[in-house]
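Quick entry between incubations.
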Amino acid sequence: MALDPARRAELRTLLDDWVATRSPKAKERLVEGHLPLARHLARRFADRGQPMDDLVQVASIALLKAIDRYDDERGVEFSTYAAHTILGELKRHFRDTGWAVRAPRRLQELYLELTTLTAEVGHRLGRSPTIAELASAADVTEEQVLEALEAGQAYRFTSIDAPAPGTEGATISSTLGENDPGMEMARQRAELEELLDILPDRERRIVILRFWQDKTQSEIADELGISQMHVSRLLARSLAQLRDASS
Amino acid sequence: MVGEPWGTLGDEVRLVVPADPGMLRLTRLTASSMVGRLGYSYDEVEDVRLAVDELCWAITGIGAEGSSLALVCTVLDGAVQFEGHLISGAGSAGEAITLSSMTSRILERLVDSFEILAPNGTNGPGFRMVKRRA
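Done. Structure below.
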C-alpha cells in the first residue's frame, strides 16, 4: 500500500503527536489515519468465508494494539510495525475463530449464498423462512441447508481474548428492564452487567436485543442492517464467550 | 413437508455421543435437523440450536472421561421435546448441572420450557426442554 510523500509526512506528524502527548485525541487521529491500512490488510482475507465487517474489526483492534505497543526509539516505521501486528492478529483470528471444524468448500459457499437468500426470502414472505423454503430457493436439499448453517457456526470456538468494549451508548443497566427493588435481582443484574462487559459493543447490543428485548434474529438483522446469519453467528460466538467467562 | 409435517417423522430420535465439547456440533445438527424438517422457521431453528448447545455444553462440563451424552428428541403435538442426559462416567453421575442466571435468562427466551433433571436410575444428570412451533 504505497503512500505519497505528503500523506506519509502527515501520518508521521500524527505519530509524533501521539508519541509526544499520548493524548486520547492524538491516538484517535492516529487511528483514523491508519484505518485505510487496516481495511486494506483485512481485504487480503476477504475470500476466506468471513464477513468483511468482522475482519475490519479485528484489523482495527490490532491497530489499536499496535499504537499502544509501538516504541518509536526502536527505529521501525510505525506503518511497518502496524502492518505486522495487524496481519498477525488476522492470522490468529482465522486460527482461533475460523472454520474450527473445517467445512468443505461447497458448504462454505452455500453458507454464504444462504446469507443473502435468508434475507431475500424472509422479506418476500414477511416472516422467517423455513428450512424447506431456503432449500428450495437455493436449489439444494434441506440437509444441505442445515449442514451449511452448522458449518457457519464452526466459528464458535472463539478465543476469550475478546476485544475491549467501547464506552459509548446506553448503559447495560438502562437496557435490562424496569427497576426492580429486589436485592436478588440487583445482584443478578450486576453479575450480568459484568459478564456482558466482556463483549464488544455490537455483540453486547445483539445479546441485549435478543434476550432482554425479545427481538428475533431477523428483527435484529433488520435493525442493525446486517444479515440474519451474521446475527446468528455473532450470537453463538457471544454465548460461547459468556459461557467461558462465567465458568 | 411443510404442509403436513407432523407424523412424517418417527416419534423419537436418539443420539449418543462422547460427552465432549467437540461433539456438540452433532447434537446441534441433530436438533436443528429435527425441527427444520418439521417446518420450524429459521428463527426457531436457530433458537433450538443455541439452546441445545447451551444445555449439552453444561452436561459435557460435568462429564468424566469416558462418559457419554445422550440426546433424545421427541415429536409432541406441535412441539419437539429434547431431553439430554449424562451417561456413565465414574464419579460424575451424581454431580448436578448448574446454570448461571445468564444462561437461565437466555434459555427462557430461546425455548418454551426447560428444566434441569436430577440423576435418575441409569440416567445421569440432564435437562429437558420443549420448543413449540409458532
